[in-house]
Amino acid sequence: MRYDVLVEVRLRPGIADPEGATIERALPALGFSGVDEVSVGKAFRFRVDAASVDDATSVAGELADRLLANPVIEVARVSVTGLSPPVVLDAAAAGSSPPVVLDAAGS
Fold first, then answer.
1. 83 near 15, Cβ under 8 Å?
2. Does residue 36 have a pLDDT over 50?
3. How far apart are alpha carbons 85 and 14 in whole angstroms?
4. Which of 14, 56, 84, 91 has its CA at 20 to 30 Å from residue 26's CA atom?
């Protein structure tokens, strides 16, 4: 089966985000108010052919951990879509990285 994957990579809490800070400082000059805590990250979209949800999640998580994110300064959130019902697996709570979210809604 084919699964759509979205990997969102952002800086860990406490890591300086100068790009996000620059954007946040520019917002009032552009007429935007009430916007704060701006952070900048990366998004990767791809498809995985796998025999099961677990296999697709494993491949996507490994790819995110080994290639797409620097685990020292970044966290990755992996969303595998096309599943029902949505299942949330927080690998970080189990002592590994990244958190994995399986979302049936496709978002």
1. no
2. yes
3. 34
4. 14
- C-alpha span between 90 and 95 (Å, rounded): 9
- Say what the pLDDT of residue 101 is: 52
Distances (CA, A) of 102 to 33, 34, 81: 34, 31, 6
For residue 19, give every residue at least 6 positions away whose Cβ sits within 8 Å of its Cβ, in sequence order, or none: 40
pTM over 0.85: no
Domain boundaries, the chain: 2-103
Kindly report the CATH number that applies to the domain delimited by 2-103.
3.30.1280.10
Amino acid at 64: A
Please, are residues 63 and 20 in contact by the beta-carbon 8 Å criterion? Answer: no
